[in-house]
Write a structure and sequence with these properties.
Radius of gyration: 26 Å
Mean pLDDT: 77
Structural class: alpha+beta
Number of helices: 2
Helix content: 10-25%
Strand order of the largest sheet: 3-4-5-6-7-10-11-12-13
Number of strands: 16
Length: 231
Amino acid sequence: MVRDIRTASSPETIQQIVKQTTAAGAKGQTEDAIAEARRRARDLKELIIKTADEVTHYADRIVTELNEVYVAKSDFGEYTQSVETTIEQTAQGVVDSYHYSELIEALSGEVGALDTYLTTINGQIRRGIVTDPGTQQQVLGITISENLQFTGTEYEEGGVTYYELTPGQTFGMYTSTGWQFWVNGVKIGWFDSSDSKLHVSGVVAEDNMQLGGDWLITHTGGFGIRYIGGN
């Protein structure tokens, strides 16, 4: 598929971003310089894509659907369990979508009525190239959620289509540089190899907390700190 996605952009703007990107690459390899170089590289990439005369995109896609149904009937009622799994494989990665439903229809012998109980669980595991919602960078990782939702907004970079996550979701993300937990759209816990430290927005120690193996913090009889190390 060939598509023309040219937008208005002056030659001066192109030359300026190219010059800035080249200059950033020559700076010292500090963390700030590397982050700046990456940002400018992303800006340059977006500019190249927007001003490209032609964009060609080809992608293979395999979808596998698996179903399991279990039904049990007796004089007391009927029980039905259904599991559906959809596995979508692309060059970007693999998406496993799950749907579980459990239906219980209990027959009441006294009045001949049926009480119905229905339980449904949806989940999704996305493996491969995922978008870090904190940095908006594409990274290699795994995203796990009860039900990942998307806004419907799509954007294309380098011939690859990305899908925008709906804000306010709860999910876990594991990447080659660490992991992070999001609850209702807020990142509440994460570990990143850049500083090798665990970050959490709040901590509740139900019983006690041990620091460095030598100090114990407890709440028995009130707040207290006790040394439990050796002599």
